[in-house]
Amino acid sequence: MQAIGVLGGTFDPVHFGHLRPALELRETLDLAEVRLIPCGQPPHRKPPRATAAARLAMLELAVAEQAGLRVDSRELERPGPSYMVDTLASLRAEFGTTPLCLLLGSDAFLGLPDWYRWQELPQLAHLVVMHRPGWELDDDLAAPLARLVAERRTDRPAALTAHPAGAILFAPVTALDISATAIRALIGAGRSPQYLLPATVWNHIRAQGLYM
Ligand code: ATP
Prior knowledge:
With about 210 residues, this protein is α/β, with parallel strands linked by helices. It contains ten helices and six strands; from the N terminus they run βαβαβααβααβααβαα.
């Protein structure tokens, strides 16, 4: 059974550093689809600059032409902080034993021990870590992460379809040193973020006067 990929984020705004790795992993891991799930209320950081509706609209524009990438708004419909453990539990309830793969940039992976009930995540999904420039994974992982990796690491993508959840895979993706923070800063400084994100998204940002 093909697995479903899950990429959560603030997407403030969505950019090619999200989209290109998502598409590559859909292809290389033969995922049925990747769901981009915008965060309603981020528990670990200050509120996004753009509204939930604006971030959702930008995501819809970004994936409109791309089969296999889709937007899932469940975190925006849920009150309270958007905890990934709740999101995965709701996907698990919906998809039964279909394998789920939580896609995480290496920065997000390194911050995982701060996430609410993070130890339960591997019971709900596989973890797929995508390298992000500037966030190297060396041998010096914090003890809880080192333990997670020692217990669950696989190098075989096939392991992701053999079970609904529980493995951790480090997957190569094209390294793109792009961040939403840098894009917001460019726009705020009156400079162009063209070629860092889809043109449709940049047009929408301009039309709505976002991040100015
Ligand atoms: P911000 O700069 O506002 O913190 P961001 O660019 O890091 O935003 P998020 O929406 O916070 O984007 O990221 C969502 C997910 O996508 C996280 O798992 C993050 O690690 C991953 N991600 C974001 N940018 C990249 C990138 N350039 N390469 C690989 N993964 C990325």
